[in-house]
Amino acid sequence: MITTHGLTKRFGRVLAVDSVDLDVREGDRYGFLGPNGSGKTTTVRMLLGLVYATRGEIEVLGEPIPKHVRDVLPEVGALVENPAAYPHLSARTNLTILDASGPPTDRASRRNRRQRVGEVLEQVGLASIGRRPVKTYSLGMRQRLGIASALLGRPRLLVLDEPTNGLDPQGIREIRELLVGLNRAGTTIFMSSHLLAEVEQLCTRVGVVDRGRLVAQAALTELRGETGRTLVRVGDPAGAVGLLDGRVVGRDGDRLVLAGTTVAEATARLVQARIAVHEAAPERRTLEDVVLGLTSHGSDRVDGDGHRTEQLQP
Amino acid sequence: MSVVGRGTRWRWAAVGIGVAAAIALPSVVPSAAMVLDRASQPAERPAPAALVELALASSDVAHQGLAQTRGSLGLPDLPRLSDVPALFGSTTKTRVWWSSSSAWRVDTLSLNGEVDTYGFNGDTARWDYENRELTFVVGQDGARLPRADDLLPPQAVRRILAGLGPADRLEPLEDRWVAGRAAAGLRVVPGDERTTVARLDIWIDVGSGLPVELHVVGRDGFEALESRFLQLDLTQPDEDLLLAPFPRDARVDRTTTPDLAAAVDLYAPWRLPGSLAGLSASRSLLGGTATYGEGLVRFALLPLAPDLADDILDRAVTAGALPLDPAGGEAVLVTSSVLNAVVARGSDREHAYLLAGFVTPETLEAAATELLADPPPRRRP
Amino acid sequence: MIVVEIRKLFGRRRTWVSIFLLCLLPTVVAVFLSLTDIGPRPGEGPAFLSAVLSNGALYPAAALGIVLPIFLPIAVSIVAGESIAGEATTGTLRYLLVRPVGRTRLLVAKLSSITLFVLVAVFAVSITALVVGLNLLGSGPVVATTTVSGTPLSPSQLGIRTVLTILYVGWSMLGVASVAFFLSTLTDSPLAAALGGLSALVGSTVLVTLDAADNVRDYLPTRYWLAWVDFFRDPILWRDIERGFLVQGVYVVVLLGMAWANFTTRDVTS
User: Fold this and answer.
1) In the predicted structure, residue B220 carries a pLDDT above the cut 80
2) Are residues B190 and B146 in the same domain?
3) Residue B7: predicted pLDDT
4) Which of A51, A206, B49, C245 has the smallest number of Cβ neighbours within 10 A?
5) b/e per residue, A215-249, with b = 16+ CB within 10 A?
6) How far apart are CA A205 and CA A137, in angstroms?
7) Is residue B11 within 8 angstroms of chain A, CB to CB?
8) CATH number assigned to the domain covering A226-284
9) Among B94, B107, B112, which would you mutate to test the C interface (most chain C Cβ atoms within 10 Å of its Cβ)?
10) B375: how many CB neighbours lie within 10 A of its CB?
């Protein structure tokens, strides 16, 4: 769905995006993960033809960008950075105007506009908002409206930049369920985020950027590979430590971390020694470990006087 | 290679070419048109003397068009000079419809209105839009102040060329593109030292003899006056256009003395001498005013009413005029590039004069001194 | 898209308020004129104001003369400066572009709505002025309308010439609009674009009156703005009007070209 080769963007002397090779496949829920200022938004803008690449190639839905951007974008729904709307108009009017501005497609025609507007407002939970102008909306409501406008054209591909910004936990959950549902129905989702938990819960594939470079790109399960160590929870931790002497590298209450053994071997020996095994599994890396291992500080961290350390949050 | 890098360049290149074309067009088109027009005319230009003859015979050439006069003479704003300072000191746009010397119309355009002069058989009618005033000037053949139509190229050039003397030198000039035609050029270099004019550059339409452009350059190298047609059409104007309008709400005035000079001409009490400063009177003295000298060395002498002279003397000094100190009275000199004037008043407080012309201040001062030293006698009615 | 843009512009209260204010000024002037009966002295003040004292039918032209130097350009500048930069400020520009609306298409649509605004504004001023003029100031039959040259002007002639004036003034305003419009594609601040358009206008107005700038005067955008008075001469003096039309046209084409070249190739980072 999205492929880039050596995608590079330079703003004056600043290299914002540095030879990024993205590969988003059909049906993916792709999480584009990186600290603030790492080039996520610039990449998203390039994918949508808003910002022109300095070097490199982009293909979205099989077509080159920005050359055929006009053929591609009707099939793409997007949320770029913040949602935006005409503040003096209502949500419904905003969506109608936006829809009327662009070309109709088979799935999103002029005739079913009213129906589609109603549908997306329903989907994001703004159905009963009425005629209030957007300037009276809360941050979360605006975010919902932004997502609604991305869904309006019934797109095959959704490109969402920080889709859960400003939403409360309840809202985040709703949107997550909405996106998973859309994905099941065949929509590919590409979302950027600096929230690890969000990506971990929603995405099937992950790309990690740091300072404009793509430092990792793989299926979520692949990234969270096994560490080679084994986790067990036992009824008698002291006994277990004595039994598995030398293999235990960590202990937290009744939880033990074992090295140099496997789940099968460890459980077999514990069971033989009549120590109850409540849980046993190979240890997996958390996404946080992976990402923090790959990335540096966020670019908005200013060490010294002005301490701003808004980094990747677990 | 980014798609847009190339796009940027060609788009801006297209815009750049468009701008260049828009800038170049106004200069390229006339030059090309001039080459074409010149090719359609006889290869040989008439000799300067023949051009003078052609121009002098052009007073009845019908034409209509738009002319622009730019005077750079900073004349002081003296009382009762009507629009003369503006005429010689600023840019005036004028529309002309000229059927013959006895049927014409000249409109002086301003931002908010216009002043139109209609000429018919020696009489004139003047329509002033902003004052909604219609003035008929009847039977006037004496002296008057210059009007906008006097500065139009044909009138001004004919007046100058009519007075050429043997000492004045004629030289050919390069053709010039004036109001859509290639006009033959002529330079007049005055031979007499007493004139303030260094040279006159004149362009004449060879086909009709109509002068189309005039530049008057003073001895200081300063261009004092420039008058040229912006648009010219050598066709007979529509007769309806030559009839003065008669708006119902206009104030209508009928006069024989439209301005200061005409009033003075009528009032003129003195029998003026036959020659002054070595220049002899060149016009009938019957009216009590006179011009002295000939060709380009010529000045006008207007007797003034004493109170008016007082007024002018007072104002002229504050307006930057130079006080002179002649025997038998007082006088001030007003100089501005090519045009000089002297206002003089005798110590008897009766004799007062205005002398003005394209002559050196010394000439005027000499004339004024002579007048004050030997006051002319009163005319018999 | 064009229809959408026009609806957007004319659906705003701000648009109608500006048109209302434009119409208000000539109305106030007319009220004062009718109360005091004092016209400006010859050579001073806006054209035709003395003439309209006795004849209100000329007031539409005079009213255009009143709003032409400052008020109309300000209104037009604001609308044109707002066009692209305003969308950039609210952030809706990027959503329009990914909708997708072609960049050239967006420019054309914005330009159409600006043009319509200019036309509506000048027509609104003229019609208000006609109503006000006929009711408050002198009306036709008593004193025949005349041209500047003093010849009588029939109502149909007056109508034609007034409409020509309206179109000419509208065309002149399009020149201001294209400056602000170009700047609007350059910056993300609508205010900067509007002020930029106005400073170009003020600069040009100053240079036109400056003798030292004689060589460039005929190429300045405001050089022929006041030539609309020539419609009321008899016969009509076309030269300055034609030139004004052409000069303005060159500015419009060049600036729109620049707006297009810039906007279609620039990064939208707002």
Assistant:
1) yes
2) yes
3) 67
4) B49
5) bbbeebeebbeeeebbbbbbeebeebeebbeebbe
6) 33
7) no
8) 3.30.70
9) B112
10) 15
Helices A139-151/A91-101 angle, 10° precision: 30
Q: Is residue B261 part of a domain?
A: no
Q: Report CB contact under 8 Å: B11, C261.
A: yes
Q: What percent of chain C clears pLDDT 70, i.e. is strictly above it?
A: 94
What pLDDT, on the 0 to 100 scale, is given for residue B160?
87
In the block, residue with structure tokens 């037009």: C76
Q: A2-222 maps to which CATH number?
A: 3.40.50.300
Q: Is residue B166 part of a domain?
A: yes
Q: What is the ipTM of this complex?
A: 0.85
Note the pLDDT tens digit of each residue in A221-280: 888 888 888 888 988 888 888 888 788 888 888 888 888 888 888 888 888 888 888 988
Of the candidates B244, B247, B266, the residue with the CA atom closest to the CA atom of residue B255? B266
For residue C254, list chain B residues with Cβ-Cβ distance below 8 A: 15, 18-19, 22
State which residues form the domain around C142: 2-265
Q: What is the DSSP letter of C41?
A: P
* C227: its two tokens: 């030539």
One domain for residues B249 and B297 = no
- Contact of A54 with chain B, judged by CB distance below 8 Å, is answered with yes
What the block records as the tokens of A214 is: 């793509």
* A65, A75, A101: best to mutate for the C interface, most C CBs within 10 A: A101
AA letter at B361: P
**What pLDDT shows up at residue B77?**
66
Mean pLDDT of B115-127: 89
* Residue ranges making up the domain that contains B74: 48-255
B247: nearest CB among C50, C150, C239: C150
Peptide bond into B146 cis (omega under 30): no
State whether B22 and C258 contact (CB < 8 Å): no
Inter-residue long-range contacts of A94-98, CB under 8 Å, 24+ positions, other chains counted:
A94/A134, A94/A145, A94/A149, A95/A120, A95/A121, A95/A145, A95/A148, A95/A149, A95/A152, A97/C4, A97/C7, A97/C8, A98/A149, A98/A152, A98/C92, A98/C95, A98/C96, A98/C99
Cβ of residue B245 closer than 8 Å to a chain C Cβ: yes
Chains A & B: contacts with CB separation below 8 Å: 11
Mutation to test the C interface, candidates B114, B228, B233, B246, most C Cβ within 10 Å: B114
B306 compared with A144, residue with greater pLDDT: A144
Tokens linked to A36 = 């603030």
Q: Same structural domain for residues B240 and B143?
A: yes
C229 touches B: beta carbon within 8 Å: yes
State whether residue C57 sits within 8 Å of chain B by CB: no
**Mean pLDDT throughout B89-98?**
90
The structural domain count of chain B equals: 3
pLDDT tops 80 at residue C50: no
Residue B107 shares a structural domain with residue B13: no
Would the pLDDT of A3 be above 90? Answer: yes
In a domain, B260, yes or no: no
Find which of A262-271, B1-10, C44-53, C236-245 is predicted with most confidence, using mean pLDDT: C236-245
